[in-house]
Amino acid sequence: MDLFVEPSPHVFVYLGFEVGGRRAVDEKASELKDVAATVRGEPSVVDVHLFRATFTPPIPGGPRFDLAMLVRTSAPETTSHPDLERLGATMTMSAHNPCRIGDTDAGRPGATYLFNHFHAPDVETAVTVWKGLAGWFTANTGIDNSTPLAALGDSAYPLVNFARLPSGPRRFLLRQFTRPSFRTRVLAPLRAHRMAAMPIFYRPL
Q1: Which of 17, 107, 113, 176 has an alpha carbon within 20 to 30 A of 49's alpha carbon?
Q2: Which of 123, 15, 9, 150 is nearest to 73 (CA)?
Q3: Torsion 49-51-56-61 (CA) sign
């Protein structure tokens, strides 16, 4: 049985916001909700989801986004929607989905979501290595979905993997780190291809 299913036909816009301070995050979250309601009214927009970070591992050089927005659209021009541009995101990334595992349902209340940001030499390398790692993660962490977002154009992260987790972040990470094969099957290929994974864990807003 093939691990991968048909890629999503849509274009994605991933926006990350580094805000700082609980009050500032609350205020920015309210602004994002207002803009999301407007953007959802666009005929080409399939859905818009908002997320708030719950845990960011202290990885040097990694992103520190307090909030995130993910827009799925059938029209590439939506990626430059003026309301999105006015939000002042720390990072905006337009992406396509080259392959995926199952369906990442982004709207489950209380679920934990992972946005895993990959440093890599280029998009093709990132996608190839991710596909090589996918089987290990499904077998060892209980994850049954994954939607990698491959950058369209320049991006600080050529690939950002988006997935709904079967547990909270600490349990998910523990399942990885306690597997003897984690170093040889995951870390070694990443290092061999000059890649680094930088995760942020979120809950839906």
Answers
A1: 176
A2: 9
A3: positive
Residue 105 and residue 132: Cα distance in Å, rounded? 23
Q: How many residues does the chain have?
A: 205
Query: CA-CA distance, 13 to 101, in Å (whole number)?
Result: 19
Tell me how far the alpha carbon of residue 166 is from its chain's centroid.
16
Q: SS3 helix, strand, coil % of the chain, rounded to 5?
A: 30, 30, 40
The helix/strand/coil state of 161 is: strand
- Asked if residue 54 belongs to a domain, the reply is yes
DSSP state of 16: E
- pLDDT tens column, 3-21: 999 999 999 999 999 998 9
pTM score: 0.95
How large is the average pLDDT for residues 152-164?
96
Tokens (6 digits) for 98: 């080259």
Q: How many separate domains does the chain show?
A: 1
Domain extent, residue 128, equals 11-204
- 3-class secondary-structure state, position 49: strand
Distance CA 120, CA 10 (A): 23
CATH number, domain containing residue 70: 3.30.70.100
pLDDT, position 9: 94
CA pair distance 27, 87, nearest whole angstrom:
12
> What are the tens digits of pLDDT across the range 67-111?
999 999 998 777 778 899 999 999 999 999 999 999 999 988 899
